[in-house]
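User: Can you predict the 3D structure for this chain?
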Amino acid sequence: MTAIVVDGLVKRYGNVEAVSNVSFEIQPGEVFALLGPNGAGKTTTIEILEGFRHRDRGRVEVLGFDPADRATSLRLRERTGVVLQELAVEPYLSVREVLERNAGYYPSPREPDEVIDLVGLNEKARSRVKTLSGGQMRRLDLGLGIIGNPEVLYLDEPTTGFDPSARRDAWEVIRRLTSGGTTVLLTTHYMDEAESLASRVAIISGGRIVAEGTPQSIGGRDVSDALIRFRMPGGVAVAELPVQPTSVTAGIAEIRTAKAVEVLRTLTNWAVEKSVELAGLTCERLTLEDIYLRLVGYEEQQ
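Assistant: Here is the predicted structure, written as structure tokens:
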């Protein structure tokens, strides 16, 4: 069974269509990243999936349930977890007490000590919530999202406030969950996070899905021109290069090409034959961030 189905979803606020004919599917055990600028419609879409907001039109299913159906809402919520940007947690309870209390809301929860270890709060297990730093609070938010051992987990900006090492730790937790079959719907403004975790990405802008695919191929990223860079070798004129650069700035040559392998072979063979060093040689295609900014119209706004 498909874990999440969204088909022709529409949500209006007065005369404004915040979500317009949005469709996507998420398979069990998949990390699906829904990316978009603030106000694009992603939060509304997720709130509809969570059952917190009603839709105007379209079909939505989570684990075979309609989130808007009050008769089955409790059964659905027992099988899902949510990590919001901010959660209201009693400040005078300890980390362990908060997790133990929330575990009681689910039929088959994880052990609180297991969750504390997973999110890296062992040293803070007995500390009151009010003493936690921002990053530690986000770790607790993640722990509360997974304490119920959910089949579907909604992660809304899960690593905001994390330092780089804490972010990588959180990514590892998410990978462990998905390897155990948990389905994850992720929103994030960190493109490296989406690229590292998600098997598929959808970009939403103006209430519409403007692109969907793997992080490697979305928006034609895998077939875009490559950018080859290297420092001009000393004593070599530009005209002597076997491939003429698109530009040379401050001694750095750049070549934009759709035939990256062929150009690299020509350059490196020439360098070996001439005993010339191509210092700083790199080959890059458009990044996920480049594609994202293009698709949400950032370049047109500049």
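The longest strand covers residues 16-26. The CA atoms of residues 216 and 222 lie 6 Å apart.
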